[in-house]
Every structure is written in C-alpha cells, then in structure tokens.
Specification:
This protein is an alpha+beta fold. The chain is about 25% helix and about 20% strand. The protein has helices at about 10-25, 65-80, 90-95, 105-110, 135-140, 155-170, 175-185, 225, 235-245, 255-260, 270-275, 325-340, 355-360; strands at about 30-40, 40-50, 60-65, 205, 210-215, 230, 275, 280-285, 290-300, 300-310, 315-320, 365-370, 370-375, 385, 395-400, 405, 415-420, 425-430, 435. It has an 8-stranded antiparallel sheet, with no helix packed on it. Strands 2-1-11-10-9-8-7 form a 7-stranded antiparallel sheet, sandwiched between helices. Strands 3-6 form a two-stranded antiparallel sheet.
Amino acid sequence: MTTPQEELLPGTRRALLHRIAVAQAEGRAPSLVAAVVRDGRTVWHGARTSVDGHGPDEHVQYRIGSITKTFTAVLVLRLRDEGVLDLGDPLEKHVPGTGAGEATIAELLAHTSGLAAESPAPWWERTPGSLRPELADVLGEQPFLHPAGRRFHYSNPGYTLLGALVEKLRGAPWEEVLRREVLEPLGLDRTSTRPQAPHAGGWAVHPWADVLLPEPAEDLGRMAPAGQLWSTSGDLARFAVFLAKGDDRVLSARTVREMRMPAAPAEAADVVDGTTYGLGLQIQHREGRLLVGHSGSLPGFLANLTVSVADDVAAVVLANCTSGPPLSAVGADLVRIVAEAEPRIPDPWRPLTEVDTSVLELAGQWYWGTHAFALRLTADGLVSLEPLSGNGRRSRFQANGDGTWTGLEGYYAGELLKAVQRPDGSVSHLDLGSFVLTRQPYDEGASVPGGVDAGGWRGVG
C-alpha cells in the first residue's frame, strides 16, 4: 500500500515532480509515471500525461521490457539455492541439444556467454513470437559471436535459454513458474505476461514532429523470459524492496546480494562510464553512488528500476513511448534527490548483547609490516579489519565457529583469518591468508616471514 506522501518533505516532493515533469515534456512522452521507495515503503508517486483529466496511477500497467530478465534471473537462482543446479554448470547438462550448451548458467546470467545480442531477423520485438517456435529459431545458425567468458555482450537469446532451463527443471511453463514462485509470494498481482486493464497503450513519437503512431504489442513467445512482462509502478516498487532486502519466501538477502555483485568483465568504455552487470542486474557508479537495477524497452514503452542500497532509496519510472526521456538518468536523479534532501537516518548504536573475551582481546591495533590496521568487533557479530589512515584493503569477517573468520568482501573475500597462539596460550600474531599481522611493526616476538633484523629500528646518522 502506498504510504502518505507527507512522509517526504514538501520541497523534496516538488523536486521529484519537477524532475519527471521535465522528463515528460522534454522527452515528449505521452505519459510518464514514477514512484520512490524509502525504508521498504513507497513514499511518493507522481505522473505526467498529455491527456487532460487523466493521470496514470500506481495501478496502470506499462510494458517493462528487459526488467523481465531480472525476474528470470530470480527463478534461476532459486534453482541454484535448492541445489538443483550449479552456476558453473554448462547449459548442456540440463538442456541438451540447443547448440549453445557450452555456455555456463553464470555466463548466461551475466551476459558473458558470447551469444549474439539478438535473434535472427525479422526483428523479434515487432513480430509475433510464433515466427520463432523453437530455440533453434531464436539462436540461429551461428549463435556465438565471442569466446565464452571473455567479455560482456548483452544477449536477449541468452535469457531465452534461461527461460527454457527453468521450464525444463520445473516441468512447467516459465509464466506459470514465475507467477507461483515470485509474483504471488511478493504480492505482485498487477504484473503479468499480457496486458490487463487498466494499461497504457504504446506509442512511437515522430522525431521531427509532435505526432504519434501506435506500436504493436506482440506476444514474444520463446523470447518472453527476455522481455515479455507488463507491470505497474506500484508492483515494481515492491520488487525494488525485494532486490534491496531479499525475502526468504523467494530468495534470501544473501542471494539477492550476490545478484548485485559484478559478474561480468568490464570493457574500457564501461570502466569510464562506471557500468557493469551482475546476475540479472545492471550496476552503475553514478555521482559517487552505487546503483543497481535494470532498464527495459520494447516498441511503445520505456522502463527503469533503480536502487541505492546504501541510501535505502529506490525509484521506478515508466513511459509509453518507443524513445524519448532518458529513464535511467531520471531514475538515478529521483534516488539522488531523496538521498541528498533527506539523508538516511542511521539506526541507533547499540552495544553487543554478549562478547567472547578471547575475541575481545584481539580488538585494537595491528600491523602488517608497517601498515597500521584496526580490528573491531561490531554489533552485528562480525569483526572488521580496516586501515587506520588512507585507503587500503579492508573487509568484514564472519565467524566460522572454530576460532577462525572468513572474509566477506574486497581483497579478503573468502580468505581465512585466524589468531596464532604461542605455547603459553597468548596470541603471537594474526594470520590472514599467509599475511602476518603483529601488535607492533615487525614485532620481534612474532613469527614474521623473513625474520626481523637483530639490530632493530635505527636512525641514519
């Protein structure tokens, strides 16, 4: 349910309205609808339209194009979490005979399989899916354009294959599995594979004249897992909450976090642009803010979903035109407006409820050679290691229950941290993936690789 718009300050609401009004006017969109989510709830909804007396609300469907891919990725990761498949499995293991079976499931999810971007002509977005009844019709005679795993190359046929994978392993149509496993648990009852009233009509706007042409709304058939869905700003707002926090009825917070991690090698231009791709999610670094989500387009429609997990703010923007307003930029701006005007208020600090004294003894300053680090115990039960000054390697570590910890991020992700004891039980040093951290720089009392010069520290006369 949409919460009262008064939860945002009047100035923030006006800035949001101004941004979508400019987008609709300058982009010449027949209509544009948007929503903003904060703290897990929709706190603002706005719309602009060229039709007097009619404003689309959060219940009006628009076609969302490739945002459909994120839904398909969720279905695949559910299969992985259940142990039905591994992301490193080649497609051939589960769906034999496609002609593209050497691609792994992870490569298909991250668009690194080397498959072509589109299916063979005619253009699949404006022609009936019945023209491509089989996977061979979607892939064509030469499905691969690049070596698998070497580069990011967006592929609509790749997600068609993932949809076929879901159907094969679930023994049911992709649409039915999606409804049962994602849409119904998350309460997305206005998201469907075919339009349901009320819904917007899709339009093309002439590039050199203010006139319109209706666009066809084709059933994509086999290509449906890549772009078939219709949805609303209200439903996508709820889906944005799921992408930020997870929902154990669908995917855990840990797996959703995995979706948001970069999974594709970035090309030079992508590094400059600050963009990459995860597992079914686009990732971008924009004006100092890390954003995840997905954009979508099909003839007659544009869509964007943008989430800033750190700010706990998300935005949804939908328009019914083939081209025009830059919705990715609009979505990022809506997030920025709220995050900057009304910064997230942190939860109150609270102390640990209990503490292991042997771990508490490890807290404080440590040195890797001459690099100073601080080890801290945090209220979430983790320990963190971070440099005392400047930039450097840092990570949080999760306890393994045997006196060791495993790194959760950055350089030390997956690396083992352990305290090495002397014969008398006192701690000699910390071992972090063979790195030795000591209480003093090159501590003589610790087992420092290479030894410590017997002459000790000295000046130069």
